Amino acid sequence: MVFEDLVKPWDAKRHPARLLFFGLLFAFFSIAFSLWIFPEYTGLVMVFLVVLMTTPLMYLTLISEEQEEFRTDNELWLLKEHGKVITFLMYLFFGLVIGFSLFYILFPERVVTEVFSLQLSTIERINANQVSGSIVSVDTFATILLNNLKVLFFCLLFAVFFGAGAIFVLAWNASVISAAIGTYVRNSLAKYATLLGFNNVAVHFNLFVTGLLRYMLHGVFEIAAYFIGGLAGGIISMAIVNKGVRMMKLKRIIKDSIFLVAIAIFLLFIGAFVEVFITPLIF
Description:
Layout: H1 3-6, H2 9-14, H3 18-37, H4 42-68, H5 75-106, H6 109-115, H7 117-129, H8 137-162, H9 166-196, H10 201-241, H11 247-282
């Protein structure tokens, strides 16, 4: 079973919701094979396996989107086509997050700690550097925005030099976000069990949805921005290695990619604002 035989970019554009299922499938398979083959390095190996399974789709998508640049001069049409790509990639990302999160919540703590040890260490470092308090909300906003811009830069850089390489950054972020959601659900569940004396499926489901919303309320803007940056860098990468692309066409592709990056930066501003000023009011 090879991923390029399961779904093609044009099929994904027509049926983006199917990628949610593939994301779930890849999350479970990557964890299972990592625990089986490299149990000591599961947290990193599972990310590489996700990259391995999704690279064919990313590569074919980048080739397809680069070709779209030459079919028309209609910028709005191109933006719409790029938007279809971002949509199915977002579904894929949500599938990965849901799959990783479900594993984190449902499996024993010993196994979860072993699988997500690297991700949990990353979360601890982020929390240690997090600025808190209403008085310094502007500083928090600046810190979060700067960190997100760094991630966008790495997505763009990975995509330019490695084509589909940006998927590694996104797969890693999916695993970290899943660990954060899983930790939130487990801690909340323990509090509910202590206060109310019960622990059932309904509580699990409610807390899972709450945890997902808590991190995706702002995360949807950030992840969309990273995918847009990765798409822009990947299109540039495909154009550079394509010997049939003349300098004039390459300049146009770079111009369109800069426009995509500008959209990504705007989305990061929105995401940082929601994370600092909106999410704390709701959760």
